[in-house]
Amino acid sequence: MTDFRAAHAAASSWQEAADSCLAQLGPVPPALNVGFLYVTDRFAGDLAEIVAFLKEETGVRHWTGTVGVGVCGSGQEYHDEPAMSLLLAGFPEEQFRMIPPLTEDSAPLLRKHGDWLAGHDFHFGIVHGDPRQMQLPALLQSLAEATHGFLVGGLASSRHGYALIADGTAQAMLAGILFSPEVAVATAVSQGCAPFGAIHEITECQRNIAVRIDNRPALEVLREEMGDVLARNLARAAQNIGVALHVRGSDTGDFLVRNLMGVDENNGLVAIGEMLEAGQLLQFCRRDPDSARADLRRTLRDLKARAPKARGALYHACVGRGPHLFGPDSGELRMLREELGDLPLAGLYCNGEIAANRLYGYTGVLTLFL
After folding, report:
1. How confident is the model at residue 286 (pLDDT cuts 50, 70, 90)?
2. Taking the C-alpha atoms of 316, 320, 322 and 326 in order, what is their torsion angle to the nearest 10 degrees?
3. What percent helix, strand, coil does the chain show, rounded to 5?
4. When you count CB atoms within 10 A of the terminal residue's CB, does the N or C end of the chain come out lower?
5. For 71-91, what is each residue's pLDDT tens digit?
6. What number of other Cβ atoms are within 10 A of residue 228's Cβ?
C-alpha cells in the first residue's frame, strides 16, 4: 500500500486553506485513490466546490467525509474557525467500495455492489451521517447486517449545513466507504469518563424514564451514588455526571454514556437521554478533565500495543471533548501525537460517534490503518 499523506490548514477562504493543504501534500502519486476530507462548518456552503477542486488538483477519485464545528490533524485542532483536514491513501481497487448516499435503507448499496459484498465474509466501514435523521441508528444496524460489517465514524456537527461527501456531495442519512478484510485496521474507543459505584439494574422504566432501579425509586439510587454534596444540587451535578448503559452481549464491558436529562423529585423519577429497557444494567459515571485524560492515555497505550506499526489514522471525537475536556492549545490531539507519534491523521469533532455499529456520545473513536 502506498504511504498515507495528510494535511490540515486554517484560512479565511477555502481556496487558501486548500492551497495550503496541497502545498503540504506535495506531488500526489497516482496510486493514492481515496481521500478523507473534513471541513469546519464555516466552509459548509463551499463543500461541493472544495471536493471538486481537490479531485481535480490531486487526481484522487474517491472521497468521503463531512462537516464539523471542529476538525483536527496530527497534533492540531481547529475549533470554530474556517479550516479543513484531509488524509489521502492508496488501496487496491478490489479492496474497497464507496457507500453511495443512503436515504432510507441499504438497498442502493446492495444493488450497486452486491457481487463485491458477496465475495467477502466481513467488511470494515468508515461512515458519516446526518444527526437530524431519527432513523439513523436503525440504518446503521441494517447496513452492518447487510455487509457483515464493523462500522466506525461520526455524525456531522454544524450550524450551516450537513452535507455528506460521497465522491461528490449529497444530502443523505449515511455515506462512506467499505473495505474488504485485506485492509488491516485497529480501532479503539475512549469513553472520556470513569464509571463509579455499583452496577445497577433498571427494574421499571417508561421510554427514557427510569422509574425503579434495583426495585427502588430511581432517584433514591441516584442520590445515594452521588453522595450528599452533589445530591443537594442535581442540576449542577448533571453537568459532570452521566449514565453508563451497559451494552447487552458485550464481552468487553462496553457501555454507552448518556446524559441525565432531569429528575422528578415528587415521584422519584430520573430521565436519561436514551430509550431504556427493563433488565438493562447501568452505572453512573463521572465526566471531567482528569477522567478524560486518564481514559484517553490508557486507550492509546492499549491500542499502540495492539498496533505498533500504524501508517495512517482517522479520529472521530465528540464536540464536547477537545478544549472542553482537554484544555486549550490542542491538548487532545497533542496527547494522540505523544502516544502514537506524528502519524498522518485527519479527524472530525462530531455530533455523535460511531463504533461497533452503534452511536456513542462523549467518545473519541480512533482508527489506525496498519
Report:
1. confident
2. -130
3. 30, 40, 30
4. C
5. 999 999 999 999 999 999 999
6. 8
* Helical (H) or strand (E) element with 272: strand 269-272
Q: Are 191 and 280 in contact (CB under 8 A)?
A: no
Which CA distances in Å does 313 have to 23, 307, 341? 20, 12, 11
Task: Give the model confidence (pLDDT) of 225-245 as tens digits.
Answer: 887 545 556 666 666 788 888
C-alpha cell at 341: 507519534
State how far the Cα of 315 lies from the Cα of 364, in Å rounded to an integer.
Answer: 7
Burial letters for 257-289: b for 16+ Cβ neighbours within 10 Å, e otherwise?
bbbbeebeeeebbbbbbbebeeebebbbbbbee
Residue whose C-alpha cell is 461528490: 168
Exposure on the CB side of residue 307, measured as CA atoms within 13 A: 21
d(CA 221, CA 315): 36
Beta-bridge partners for 55: none
Averaged pLDDT score across all residues of the chain: 91
Measured CA to CA, the distance from residue 17 to residue 10 in angstroms comes to 6
Residue 257 pLDDT greater than 90, yes or no? no
Cβ contact 34:60 at 8 Å: yes
